[in-house]
């Protein structure tokens, strides 16, 4: 009998944990938690887990560059699936401690707000308008922030994070949905050496990394035209430093097509023929959001 597959993510009650549960809904997997995202990556790189769940992009804060760089420079793990999740951030704390006589929490009673830096960035307007006097502290995840608040009663601390973590650590949701924009979506990747299939997927994507040849005028233009004349749709193109030399970049490109199609391998062959290096980071299903 084969062992239960393992999936690594940030701790219980984080958005990453919620995404991991979505990827493996109705499936028998063991969820393994790590405090740091670097350990989430390493768990699968070292073979202790079969997959890792990584937040890669957010509608408000943009790409999580650190995580993109890890995928490219630190580990060699194929992308197996993606899921875009409407993350709802909540202000969480002990209502009793933060309330006045009316029984409602009062902003003046909150001295400090803790959260993950990306979650904090999604709520800056709310924090500036409602809690301008509160100190802000960033931690390794939203659930770590909620746990820290639960372990420090009486100090006027609150956190930003999930409803699940608030329940897990016995805190109250003081205010629901404190994100500055309604369309706060986070894109999560499932990466790992083990195959993953999901019949619910509606679209397939391929992510590639392109390094342009030195001193080749118009190289990026030629790369883009290899996709354009085949009418291949791109959903993202981003340049990141190669970390080797100042001013030298690679291009991270997401394509709305599977590598199984005839067109995409032909476009990649054409791009390689002009001297570009192409690394396929994964060809994978994109899962729809279903409650
Ligand atoms: O701390 C968490 O809950 C995470 O899963 C991390 C993370 C991120 O790194 O982007 C994921 C999504 C949220 O929007 C904020 C934080």
UniProtKB/TrEMBL annotation:
Superkingdom of the organism of origin: Bacteria
| Protein EC | 4.2.1.51
Indicate the segments forming the Prephenate dehydratase domain, all copies. Answer: 5-193
Q: In which pathway does it act?
A: Amino-acid biosynthesis; L-phenylalanine biosynthesis; phenylpyruvate from prephenate: step 1/1
Query: ACT domain spans which residues?
Result: 208-285
InterPro entries per record: ACT-like_dom_sf, ACT_dom, Chor_mutase/pphenate_deHydtase, Preph_deHydtase, Preph_deHydtase_CS
Catalysed reactions, semicolon-separated: prephenate + H(+) = 3-phenylpyruvate + CO2 + H2O
Kindly state one GO CC term assigned in the UniProt record.
Answer: cytoplasm
Q: Which UniProt keywords apply?
A: Amino-acid biosynthesis, Aromatic amino acid biosynthesis, Lyase, Phenylalanine biosynthesis
In terms of CDD domains, this protein maps to: ACT_CM-PDT, PBP2_Sa-PDT_like
Q: Where is this site: Essential for prephenate dehydratase activity?
A: 186
Q: What terms describe the molecular function in GO for this protein?
A: prephenate dehydratase activity
- Under which main EC class is this enzyme filed? lyase
Any one GO biological process: L-phenylalanine biosynthetic process
Query: What is the protein's given name?
Result: Prephenate dehydratase
Gene designation per UniProt = pheA
């Amino acid at each position: 009998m084969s062992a239960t597959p393992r999936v690594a993510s940030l701790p219980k009650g984080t958005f990453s944990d919620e995404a991991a549960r979505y990827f493996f809904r109705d499936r028998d997997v063991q969820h393994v938690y790590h405090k740091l995202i670097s350990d989430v990556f390493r768990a699968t790189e070292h073979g202790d887990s079969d997959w890792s769940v990584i937040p890669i992009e957010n509608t408000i804060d943009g790409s999580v560059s650190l995580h993109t760089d890890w995928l490219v420079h630190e580990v060699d793990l194929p992308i197996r699936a993606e899921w875009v999740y409407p993350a709802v951030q909540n202000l969480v704390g002990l209502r009793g401690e933060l309330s006045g006589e009316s029984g409602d929490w009062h902003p003046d009673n909150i001295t400090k707000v803790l959260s993950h830096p990306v979650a904090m960035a999604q709520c800056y307007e709310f924090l500036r308008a409602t809690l301008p006097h509160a100190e802000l502290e960033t931690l390794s995840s939203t659930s770590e922030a909620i746990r820290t608040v639960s372990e420090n009663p009486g100090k006027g601390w609150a956190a930003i994070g999930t409803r699940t973590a608030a329940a897990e650590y016995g805190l109250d949701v003081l205010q629901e949905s404190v994100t500055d924009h309604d369309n706060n979506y986070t894109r999560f990747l499932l990466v790992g050496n083990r195959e993953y299939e999901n019949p619910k997927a509606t679209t397939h994507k391929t992510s590639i990394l392109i390094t342009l040849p030195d001193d080749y005028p118009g190289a990026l233009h030629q790369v883009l035209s290899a996709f354009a004349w085949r009418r291949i749709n791109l959903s993202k193109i981003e340049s990141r430093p190669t970390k080797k030399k100042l001013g030298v970049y690679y291009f991270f490109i997401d394509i709305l097509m599977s590598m199984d199609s005839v067109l995409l391998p032909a476009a990649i062959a054409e791009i390689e023929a002009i001297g570009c290096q192409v690394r396929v980071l994964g060809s994978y299903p994109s899962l729809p959001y279903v409650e």
